[in-house]
């Protein structure tokens, strides 16, 4: 530790950001490229006439500007804003707080077309956008997650969502291994399921970055005259929201996925009404929270429950639903298995927990 304290643990999860010391000490490569010059970030109290009902953005010949209203836990006021501004044409030296504020005083009225008075700064920073992906997510008992495993543009909250997804995927697998209920082979499925998604996210955010920082006449024309109008269409906005939400993520092609009727093993199950053992109704996602769920079409799924509980332990909820087949749902809300016979469930559990690979 930084204070000289020594800690010993069976596993180390590196969630220490793009400059991850854990990744470096584990000898894991982090190849990639730089995509942009510097962006400025700041949480500022602003006096201007901008509507706080949503996020606003401006495309300007000198660069993009975004403004997001933020809650103010200090004063309880309604004038705190998160700003992000592309600021090309400067050296790679990190600017100080005063330089960032001076630049924003120039950028805000220039790009927004509004008169604005900048008040107190809660926080300022800067960053450059890189596209990087770890060579591997695991080296023995060291596992990488979040920005330590993948670096990309922050547009659309993709870094946060991908990191949360990493944690949800890794958490239940590591728990079973630590508890002695699964072999370490199960942990190999973490990279197999999550790294392909990170590759897609890197590709998508890189394209968004290139559009936002376009400097050529053709690039600016496409961005300013074509894409701005296109993204004002309601259908495109709905598609963009769904895409950036990552609710579409599926692991059906991974080592724990499967074929058959939809939803298929590996697919994310949408939230739905289910019935608890006491007869009360609840929502599926509310019952997960680190637990498995066995969704049965009726109360007589005792044999399946016994098999699942023997292998997975007490963190298993038994719920009823309207589907004709029983479904075993992972703690990360993805479908593990569906069927009606105990032999099929046993085969899936044997493959997943012992070999990290199930038969299709």
From TrEMBL:
Residues 5-203 form the FAD-binding domain. The keyword Flavoprotein applies. This is 4,5-epoxidase. The keyword Flavoprotein applies. It holds the Pfam family Rng_hyd_C. InterPro entries: FAD-bd (IPR002938), FAD/NAD-bd_sf (IPR036188), RIFMO-like (IPR050641). SUPFAM superfamilies: FAD/NAD(P)-binding domain (SSF51905). Keywords: FAD, Flavoprotein. Its cofactor is FAD. One of its GO terms (molecular function) is FAD binding.
């Amino acid at each position: 530790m930084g204070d000289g304290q020594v800690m010993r643990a069976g596993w180390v999860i590196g969630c220490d950001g793009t400059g991850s010391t854990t990744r470096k000490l584990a000898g894991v490569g982090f190849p990639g490229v730089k995509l942009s010059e510097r962006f400025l970030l700041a949480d500022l109290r602003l006096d201007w006439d901008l509507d706080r009902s949503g996020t606003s953005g401006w495309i300007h010949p000198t660069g993009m500007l975004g403004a997001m209203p933020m809650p103010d836990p200090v004063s309880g006021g309604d004038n705190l804003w998160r700003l992000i501004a592309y600021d090309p044409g400067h050296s790679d030296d990190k600017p100080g707080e005063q330089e960032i504020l001076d630049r924003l005083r120039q950028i805000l009225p220039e790009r927004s077309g509004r008169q604005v008075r900048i008040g107190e700064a809660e926080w300022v920073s800067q960053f450059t956008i890189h596209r990087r992906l770890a060579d591997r997510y695991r080296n023995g008992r060291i596992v990488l997650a979040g920005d330590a495993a993948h670096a990309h543009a922050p547009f659309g909250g993709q870094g946060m969502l991908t990191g949360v997804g990493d944690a949800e995927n890794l958490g239940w697998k590591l728990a079973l291994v630590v508890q002695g209920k699964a072999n370490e082979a199960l942990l190999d499925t973490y990279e197999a399921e999550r790294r392909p998604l990170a590759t897609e996210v890197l590709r998508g955010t890189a394209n968004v970055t290139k559009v936002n920082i376009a400097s050529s006449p053709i690039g600016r024309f496409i961005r300013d005259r074509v894409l701005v109008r296109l993204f004002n269409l309601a259908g495109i906005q709905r598609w963009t929201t769904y895409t950036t939400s990552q609710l579409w993520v599926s692991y059906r092609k991974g080592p724990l996925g499967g074929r058959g009727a939809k939803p298929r093993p590996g697919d994310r199950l949408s939230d739905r009404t289910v019935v608890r053992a006491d007869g009360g109704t609840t929502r599926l996602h509310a019952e997960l929270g680190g637990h498995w769920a066995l969704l049965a079409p009726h109360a007589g799924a005792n044999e399946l429950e016994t098999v699942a509980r023997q292998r997975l332990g007490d963190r298993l909820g038994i719920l009823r639903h309207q589907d004709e087949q029983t479904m075993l749902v992972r703690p990360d809300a993805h479908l593990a298995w569906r069927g009606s016979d105990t032999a099929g469930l046993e085969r899936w559990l044997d493959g997943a927990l012992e070999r990290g690979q199930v038969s299709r």
